[in-house]
Amino acid sequence: MENAVENVRRRLLAAHALAARNLPYAVVGGNAVAAWVATIDEAAVRNTRDVGILIRRADFAAAKAALEAAGLHHRSVAGVDMFLDSPDARARSAIHIIYANEFVRPGEPAANPDVTDTIDMRSFRAINLQPLVRIKLTAFLDKDRTHLRDLIDLGLIDAS
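^ thats the sequence. predicted structure below, dont judge the formating
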């Protein structure tokens, strides 16, 4: 269990490779929720196994070079770009690239936000709370509803 948590933390810190090349990015998904939750109550943080990083598609080649230079391995599966710890690693324990200003699935009510609305969470840049909530409401999977309830329970957002 400790190794799993440490591996996610190490993947989060891979964002430094993007920052070192002045590439705009934001951590999104469960790790962004965890960072926001930790600002109120560290004991309420939920662990997540993958890392979502929002970038602009135009920055992908530079991001790929930065992440590969950091020792990660690119793979594309069903149109999803991801970076893994090793060539034979599983997709569920990867850095998943999410593209700013694009729809994840056809018919969604909102595109992903841009990477300009971020906050420095000391170890990495995370998407700000309002666009994070919009992402969670757009996807609205079970895990997204759980993340939203966590944010509501801590008073970071209200039920409206």
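The chain has one domain: 2-153.
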